[in-house]
Amino acid sequence: MKNIGSLLALITSLAVIPCASAETVRFPSATTPPTPLQERLAQERGQPVPSSPGFELTGELYRPPGDGVFPAVVMLHGCAGRSLRPWEDAGGAYFASLGYALLIVDSFGPRGIVDRCAAELGTPVDRVMDAFGALLYLARLPFIDPERIAVLGYSQGGGAALSAVKLGGFGTLFERQFRAAVAYYPPCEVSMGGVAVPTVVLIGALDDITPARQCEEMMARLNGEGAALRLVVYPGAHHAFNSVRLRGKPEYFFGHLEYNEAADRAAHQEMLAALRQAFGR
């Protein structure tokens, strides 16, 4: 489950990508709002409503040139943390060329975590709260359209993206919700039940880290409620199939990691279509 949110092969083939304005930003991870009971008791006692500050995170924010207002994508890295800066800059420039702002969330660096690849495959709740912290931060920026913010996650970050849009899940606690979600090879929750916004899951048929069969079981158990959830399984593709750094040199890291150009390009088109449909551009 190494971090593969670095670059799509399509980006490397582009001759010219307009520069994007990059800025290191800080924002708090979201925290669970007080319950109605807590609010009522605080009011009755004349006390402030109990609240806890979120952990301060950092991220790289890329925006297209101009004043906006821009759609935005929150990107969640995998279990090994963020990619190298040149890869992030290239990805930020690519999204900016589409007219989208991109916020790459660093969930591990501020917490002093090197990686979480040896931990359980399930998605820690703090990753989901990080996603909502990023959403709420972006929604307050004057050059971002608060109604057009999507979440894009890779591996463990993909699991967090799915949890963030789960029907009846954490999204119900906040005033803002994501417009769409794209999850690359996430650990699928078989009992997902549905999603609140249009969502696409992209995974390899040979993935032995986050097996595609779990995503297929998740799809089989859907009850028809909620928004559209699309699963695309790529034949012959392993975990990290879009990681260009693995081109010609597969690795083993708790499972087989290998680049697959056909799957990468096809998945890129799926991601792009999902974002364009969500953003209307």
Describe it.
It is built from 7 helices and 10 strands. With 281 residues, it is of the alpha/beta class. The protein has a single domain, classed as Alpha/Beta hydrolase fold, catalytic domain (Rossmann fold, 3-Layer(aba) Sandwich), CATH 3.40.50. It has an 8-stranded mixed β-sheet with strand order 1-2-4-3-5-6-7-8, with helices on both faces. Strands 9-10 form a two-stranded antiparallel ribbon. Strand 5, helix 5 (156-164) and strand 6 (180-184) form a beta-alpha-beta unit. Helix 4 crosses helix 5 (156-164). The chain is globular. The two termini are 32 Å apart.
Features:
alpha/beta; Rossmann fold; globular; disordered N terminus
* Biggest beta sheet summary: 8 strands, mixed
Q: Count of DSSP helices?
A: 7
CATH top level is Alpha Beta
Rg over CA atoms, rounded to whole Å, is 18 Å
Strand content: 15-25%
Q: Reading side by side through the largest sheet, how are the strands ordered?
A: 1-2-4-3-5-6-7-8
Q: CATH topology, what is it called?
A: Rossmann fold
Number of E-state strands: 10
CATH superfamily: Alpha/Beta hydrolase fold, catalytic domain
Proportion of residues in helical segments = 25-40%
Tell me what the CATH architecture is.
3-Layer(aba) Sandwich
Question: What's the pLDDT, averaged over the residues?
Answer: 87
User: What is the approximate shape?
Assistant: globular
* Low-pLDDT stretches: 1-7, 9-17
> Distance between termini?
32 Å
Helix/sheet category? alpha/beta
